[in-house]
Amino acid sequence: MIRSKQIELIRLGVTNLLGYPLRTFLTTLGVVFGVGSVIAMLALGAGAEQEILEEIGRLGIQNVIVNSVKPPETNKGNEQRSWISQYGITFTDFKQIKSTVPGLKSVIPVHMSRKQAWFGSKKVETTIYAVQPEYMSLFDLRTAMGRDLTGVDGAELARVCVLRAGLLKSLGIFGDPIGLTIQLGEDQAYEIIGILEDDKFRGYAREALAIDSSNSEIYVPYQTILGRHGTRSISRSSGTFEATDIELSQIVIEVTDLDNVLIVARMLERIFAINHEDRDYDIVVPLEALAQRRKTQQVFNMALVAIASISLLVGGIGIANIMLATVTERTKEIGIRRALGAKRHHILAQFLTETTTISTLGGVLGILLGLGLVQVLIFFTGWTAKITFNSIALSLSISMAVGIVSGIFPARRAAYLDPISALRHE
Amino acid sequence: MSTDDVVISLREIHKYYGDGEIRLHVLKGINLDVKRGEFIAITGASGSGKSTLLNLLGCLDRPTSGEFILAGRDVAKLNDDELSTIRNEEIGFIFQSFNLISALNVLDNVQVPLLYGPHVTSTKTARCRELLASVQLDHRLDHKPPQLSGGERQRVAIARALVNEPVMLLADEPTGNLDTKTGDQVLELIERLHAEGRTIVMITHDPEVAMRAERTVNMRDGLMFDVERP
User: Fold this and answer.
1) How many beta-carbon contacts under 8 Å exist across A and B?
2) How do A84-86 and A240-245 pair as beta strands?
């Protein structure tokens, strides 16, 4: 039976390291913290990336969203300004997109208005989203209770609404809400037919869909609002009137083929550039945003890892430093081994084995530390973090590499000691 | 005397240290033949070139000129790796200060030369145990050198020297760090090894110790002289 000499070398290396447990432990610390922080940084980076993916993914990378925005230059033509401010996406835009842009699966109009919702004497500021049923399914707005909006509701111009669960409490509705009637705006009574699951659009997705953070959206059939109410909206707040006439607040365009998304986006830009004098629209392309955000995040991740790697570098220098001291301390041992027939490469291998063992051990401990650190961070900050197999493999190989690199100089020094003077060294 | 019987042969060995003005002529033409199974003592005062000769015999160093045949090979012309192999396979060192590795236990210490040989086999590791048994240390396998007495340490070192069945045992003041009684036990062990047919070269400054060998040569001022036995 032949016992591999490599295994024997490693065993002796470990024996040697265990001979000085405290020193070995302290030497590994640098790598432990280095690897730990690299793992944590990579996990946070991957978590952030996943969050972006989910956020933007929820918008649908095959969709293009156009929002109406208040143009910045309202003070320009003060003298000819009408009492009603008129801007944003028009029905003309909508028809033009529908009839001229090819390869679209659907074009969904959305009209939004700020209104007060009343239930009894309770009053809440809300945003009414006049949407078609497709909108609800496209953005995965599922009802947890009651039923969804349907095409029939729209055709009948039914006064029905689906609202956020959060609104119920502020409206003072505590029993079964389905079938109850709330007042939207001045005099419109709407029947509650469904309650939305209490999840939110976060960050980018919320911004792109023009949803505010109050979690108080009310969804009603598009035709009901347009047919019964029109597009004008007057909001009264603290004694001032603000009248707006925005024909469409938003258009969601669903492209059939993913490859065409960017082309469609360019066409939309052209249409809007021609139809609008002011920049009173905003075209959101989730696909582009995704690519850009990911790129930004990756650069950010790399910066984080680079910073974390500094401690890894310091750890490597620590190992090299201790090993250099060890070589001096073990000069006699090196002399003995040389006398007993060790070639230079044997001595080299011995010291490299020791440094690599130290750093790999540090790597393993560092990974455990990193995993723990990530759990602690998640617990205290609520950040998303994702530990990937790649990050563990990367950290482990980096720590092994650190061992080899930091070992080379001391090991060479040991290997090229003169055997005679090494043997006489006391 | 046939050449087969000569294990060590030194011919006109010269060794210089340094260069130019400060060039030191340490060995000034050494000639020596050691037969297989011979037990020879080399004596000499410090500065006589004894240590330099020891380094050459131990293949730790190369002569400046001359021919050094060890087990049929001219060692004077070998490179560092080849010299290492010779040290590993053909020479068993026994040092004055034992030179055990204190971080390793007794068994591991004896096994060190195996690491640098062709491969470690279970027969060889079994042999390490046998050797330790033959020097009455089989009950101390797990001890580290600092836990052993001087005599025990030297016996570990002797067991280690025998692991690769070397052609020559090279003992450098083997009793120098021992009291008379344990020194005597070590010498008895060396005599036993000689009786088993091993070739032994022992370097010592002590004439009494040298008397235990079959033959003594004396180093003086870089030259070697035979010593007449009474």
Assistant:
1) 81
2) parallel
Measured from the Cβ of residue B32, the count of other Cβ atoms closer than 10 Å reads: 18
CA A39/CA A305 separation, integer angstroms? 9
Q: Which residues of B touch A326 (CB under 8 A)?
A: none
Structure tokens that stand for A369 in this block: 């530390």
Beta bridge partners of B41: B202, B216
Buried b (16+ CB within 10 A) or exposed e, A357-375: bbbbbbbbbbbebbbebbe
Question: Which two three-digit tokens encode residue B161?
Answer: 């020297």
Q: How confident is the model at residue B153 (pLDDT cuts 50, 70, 90)?
A: very high
What would the pLDDT profile of A302-348 be if each residue is shown by its tens digit?
898 888 888 888 888 888 888 888 888 889 999 999 999 999 999 99
Q: Chain-centre distance of CA B47, in angstroms?
A: 19
Task: Give residue-wise pLDDT tens across range A386-426.
Answer: 888 988 998 899 889 988 988 999 999 999 999 999 998 87
pTM of the model: 0.72
Structure tokens at A127: 């945003």
Q: Is the dihedral of CA A364, A366, A370, A373 positive or negative?
A: positive
pLDDT for residue A5 is more than 80: no
Q: Is B115 on the interface with A (CB under 8 A)?
A: yes
Residue A92 and residue A349: Cα distance in Å, rounded? 78
| B chain contacts of residue A344, beta-carbon cutoff 8 Å | 80-81, 84
Residue A286: CA atoms inside 13 Å, Cβ hemisphere, count?
27
- Angstroms from B29 CA to nearest CA on chain A: 22
Query: Strand, coil or helix: what is A102?
Result: coil
Element (H, E) at A37: helix A21-59
- Indicate whether B183 pLDDT > 60: yes
Closest CB to B113 among A332, A341, A343: A341
Element (H, E) at A221: strand A217-221
